[in-house]
């Protein structure tokens, strides 16, 4: 599990260590970890041109101390002091002692053009707003050059807690972060500016509170994905009911049903007016063109994709939400629900809502720049798990538990992939996972399936369904093909 901690949590955890350890010890831990990552990235440090963009605070201190360590390994290091009279004094002294030189910001362009690695020590946790001048222009110049762009703690210009970018930010290829991964490195615009994130342990562990949000790894998702065992039959694995698609638009019903089948192939029941299309695509499903009540017993419902928003759709939604079963509501179901939120507020069984931004806004507020905060607020308001889709999908429980998804590919931004996500999550709800985990694991597996599909070229939603078994196998770390083995 990757635990995400806010700036305030990190600062609070640092306080007892700063009091207990010798002066500067924590910064040396940070700088040593940073230098180690830079050495690995450079391969051969001897003669490499390293440029440090150093701000006035401790973030600049980390970068200058790391620069001193790289200089000691033979790198040619130059620092550009962005607030000349206010650089971290001990770090600047160490940098100079190690042979580092400094240049004025005004004369720094040619240095940046020839750098092998640029360290962003402009601002860290103390930053606010976007990059200011002259930092913004220097960062642009560095980005246009050949250098590896490495952010110290977080890319300057990115909000540590939300990932919001109020203006320009350092476009990092790698971010070396200290003590804990900050939410802003994995969510919002910050995700795109952080590149690959490397966590350096500086000993904060025992002092950190329970994380404010988490990200699942493959192992975390695998541990939650249920496996059939010898005592299982098709009913005991959890039966999913799907109400999606329509006679005119059968696609949503086909994709959603297929995703549920391919995630956990026990039994999927379909009820709705896309019955013919679903029957033709998935002979394994049990299909009725009647209402949900005609479908037979299920352990969870998925309702909404391609359903329409007319009276019949509204009545079917009300029927499903009146059951005491877990229900996932998506797409047209969300449009209907936004007009009648009491349908979900009055439920006691788990409900999962899976809006994209525009569907989210129908409930009264835009997601805005703080996607974790906004998702938590809507979940608490409605008493339902909310999964806000995007490049970093956020899942929140009404109790505040939150997950940020780390898998996926922009190729998933294609019609119908949301219907696939609903089917995956519905299968996991029917398998009795806690609703917030069903949603988070579904987002993880869906993203992996997108990545597997993308490896074969541009894909459409049906390809994501087709690649689900391989994605599940990858998440489990098991080979996806091979001779069947007894009991495997
Ligand atoms: N407290 C400690 O001893 C440790 C701190 N660490 C480092 O210290 C950082 C936090 O240090 P500080 O609290 O000194 O703060 P920062 O170094 O992040 O930033 C403070 C300075 O940046 C300026 N500033 C703020 N926003 C700006 C903007 N948008 N553009 C330009 N300048 C801006 C402020 O005026 C101030 O001078 C962490 O991110 C981490 O890198 C690590 O060394 C671990 C130990
Ligand atoms: N830029 C992106 N990068 C990664 N994943 C994305 C991106 N844009 C959308 N997605 C994912 O693709 C899916 C799209 O779902 P949705 O918007 O409901 O589409 P549809 O209604 O056509 O099925 C979601 O799982 C979302 O997280
Ligand atoms: K930084």
From TrEMBL:
Where's the YjeF C-terminal domain?
217-475
Q: Which Enzyme Commission number(s) are listed?
A: 4.2.1.136, 5.1.99.6
Q: Which residues bind K(+)?
A: 59, 120, 156
Q: Which residues bind AMP?
A: 389-393, 418
Q: Where does the YjeF N-terminal domain lie? A: 10-210
Ordered alphabetically, the record's keywords are: ATP-binding, Isomerase, Lyase, Metal-binding, Multifunctional enzyme, NAD, NADP, Nucleotide-binding, Potassium
Q: Which domain of life is it from?
A: Bacteria
Q: Which reaction does it catalyse?
A: (6S)-NADHX + ADP = AMP + phosphate + NADH + H(+); (6R)-NADHX = (6S)-NADHX; (6S)-NADPHX + ADP = AMP + phosphate + NADPH + H(+); (6R)-NADPHX = (6S)-NADPHX
The free-text note explaining how the cofactor binds reads: Binds 1 potassium ion per subunit.
Q: What cofactor does this protein call for?
A: K(+); Mg(2+)
| Residues where (6S)-NADPHX binds | 58-62, 124-130, 153, 252, 306, 356, 419
Q: How does it assemble?
A: Homotetramer.
In the record, the note on similarity to other proteins reads: In the N-terminal section; belongs to the NnrE/AIBP family. In the C-terminal section; belongs to the NnrD/CARKD family.
Q: What's this chain's function?
A: Catalyzes the epimerization of the S- and R-forms of NAD(P)HX, a damaged form of NAD(P)H that is a result of enzymatic or heat-dependent hydration. This is a prerequisite for the S-specific NAD(P)H-hydrate dehydratase to allow the repair of both epimers of NAD(P)HX. Bifunctional enzyme that catalyzes the epimerization of the S- and R-forms of NAD(P)HX and the dehydration of the S-form of NAD(P)HX at the expense of ADP, which is converted to AMP. This allows the repair of both epimers of NAD(P)HX, a damaged form of NAD(P)H that is a result of enzymatic or heat-dependent hydration.
- Name of the protein described by the UniProt record: Bifunctional NAD(P)H-hydrate repair enzyme
């Amino acid at each position: 599990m990757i635990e995400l901690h806010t700036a305030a949590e990190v600062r609070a955890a640092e306080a007892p260590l700063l009091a207990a350890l010798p002066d500067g010890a924590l910064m040396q831990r940070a700088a040593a970890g940073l230098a180690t990552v830079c050495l690995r990235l450079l391969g051969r440090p001897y003669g490499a041109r390293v440029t440090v963009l150093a701000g006035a605070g401790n973030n600049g201190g980390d970068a200058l101390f790391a620069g001193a360590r790289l200089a000691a390994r033979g790198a040619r290091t130059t620092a550009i002091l962005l607030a000349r009279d206010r650089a971290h004094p001990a770090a600047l002294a160490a940098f100079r002692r190690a042979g580092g030189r400094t240049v004025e910001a005004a004369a720094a362009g040619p240095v940046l053009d020839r750098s092998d690695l640029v360290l962003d020590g402009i601002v860290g946790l103390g930053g606010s707003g976007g990059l200011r001048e002259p930092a913004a222009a220097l960062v642009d110049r560095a980005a246009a050059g050949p250098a590896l762009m490495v952010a110290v703690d977080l890319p300057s210009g990115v909000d540590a807690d939300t990932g919001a970018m109020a203006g320009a930010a350092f476009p990092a290829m790698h971010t070396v972060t200290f003590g804990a991964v900050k939410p802003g490195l994995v969510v919002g615009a910050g995700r795109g500016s952080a590149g690959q994130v490397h966590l350096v342990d500086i000993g904060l562990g025992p002092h950190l509170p329970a994380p404010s949000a988490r990200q699942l790894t493959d192992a975390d998702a695998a541990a939650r994905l249920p496996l059939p065992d010898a005592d299982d039959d098709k009913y005991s694995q959890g039966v999913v009911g799907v109400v999606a698609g329509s006679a005119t638009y059968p696609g949503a019903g086909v994709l959603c049903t297929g995703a549920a089948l391919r995630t956990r192939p026990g039994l999927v029941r379909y009820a709705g007016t896309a019955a013919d299309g679903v029957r033709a695509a998935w002979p394994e499903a049990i299909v009725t063109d009647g209402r949900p009540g005609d479908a037979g017993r299920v352990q969870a419902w998925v309702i909404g994709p391609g359903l329409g928003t007319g009276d019949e759709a509204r009545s079917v939604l009300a029927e499903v939400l009146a059951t005491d079963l877990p229900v996932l509501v998506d797409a047209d179901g969300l449009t209907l629900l936004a007009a009648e939120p009491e349908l979900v507020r009055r439920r006691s069984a788990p409900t999962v809502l899976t809006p994209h931004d525009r569907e989210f806004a129908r409930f009264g507020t835009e997601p805005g720049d703080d996607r974790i905060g906004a998702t938590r607020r809507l979940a608490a308001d409605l008493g339902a798990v909310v999964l806000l889709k995007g490049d970093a999908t956020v899942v929140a429980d009404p109790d505040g538990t939150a997950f940020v998804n780390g898998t996926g590919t922009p190729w998933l931004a294609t019609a119908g992939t949301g219907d696939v996500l609903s089917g995956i999550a519905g299968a996991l709800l029917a398998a009795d996972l806690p609703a917030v985990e069903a949603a988070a694991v579904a987002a993880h597996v869906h993203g992996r399936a997108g990545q597997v599909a993308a490896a074969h070229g541009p894909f459409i939603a049906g390809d994501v369904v087709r690649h689900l078994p391989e994605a599940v196998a990858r998440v489990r770390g098991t080979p996806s093909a091979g001779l069947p083995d007894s009991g495997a």
